[in-house]
Write a structure and sequence with these properties.
Length: 382
Amino acid sequence: MKKTDCLAMLLAGGQGSRLESLTKKIAKPGVSFGGKYRIIDFSLSNCANSHIKTVGVLTQYRPLLLNSYIGTGAAWDLDIPNAGVSILPPYETELGGQWYKGTADAVFRNIDYIKLHKPEYVLILSGDHIYRMDYRKMLKTHQDNNADLTISVMEVAWEEASRFGIMITDDTGAIKEFVEKPANPISNLASMGIYIFTTDVLLKALQEDSVDTTSAHDFGKNIIPKLLNENKRLFTHRFSGYWKDVGTIDSYHETSMALLDDDPDFSLSDSDMPIMSNANTSPPYYIGENAVVENCIIANGSEVFGEVTHSIVSTDCYVGLNAKIKDSILLPKARVEVGAIVNRAIIGQSDVIKANQVFGSADITTRIALTLNDDEEKGQNL
């Protein structure tokens, strides 16, 4: 196998339970976002745009849709002989099999994949963030500092800091203190969960962590503090662009609705760093003669006969005659039937709002309405 400069390991196995029923049948990275995309598209596109052509995708929870969606990686120009995208689920050995125990364990149990490609550097990514980033800039920071580990960071609101790995650095960007999800944050400089390791440092740390019975086998909780205690060269790469964790219903809805602003903070269109997806097989969308569509994203394969305002309609959805949808998100194959009303809601994949039902509320003090992704009745009849 030819040696590669930088290999990416993309962690895409999380359930994402804070997204409630949206992840009942699919892993969080596979959830639809922005009409034609899925959350994992952003990390995969970043890899392709950064010319990182060898990507291992570590799946676990509900992997079928995600695996079939990624396929050969052709949609992201990652179908390359002896490189490209590889799906890496948990597997059984002569000692048995088990689920990944943590982020570090997931990478450790695919250590042979890393060794096969002989990379000088390994990029560790999460598959559940919305952002556009050129990883080559981060890699240059890593090389310029002769670093063992570089962590991409940004300042977050102080009230959010306890959700992240928080650190203190010196003037050169060298990390002096690091605490994972502290109750009382020492700063608001937060890890984005994006790491570049020099390969031999990573492999040694993973091997030692794998036999530590006290470890949670997690990068933030264990690997980073261990390297810091060993006086390894840990540096930050400051990121100043747009980056969102859409891990809750409120953040998912708010981030989605922001795409509809006249001048959004994050645009899905950028010819230099395009976001690519594998949702290009459906026919063009159809807007009926009496339909009304205002300030919306309507994806391919959808049919709209009713009224849709300030909403996102994903691929292959149906909006019936006289139906009214506002401030809402329809995930792929969702149906809103004749005369139904949907307001400030998320309609899950393949879910149905039946004829003349009301679902959600215009009252902004109420939580975003969310379908249950099962066969229960949704809403109430008019």
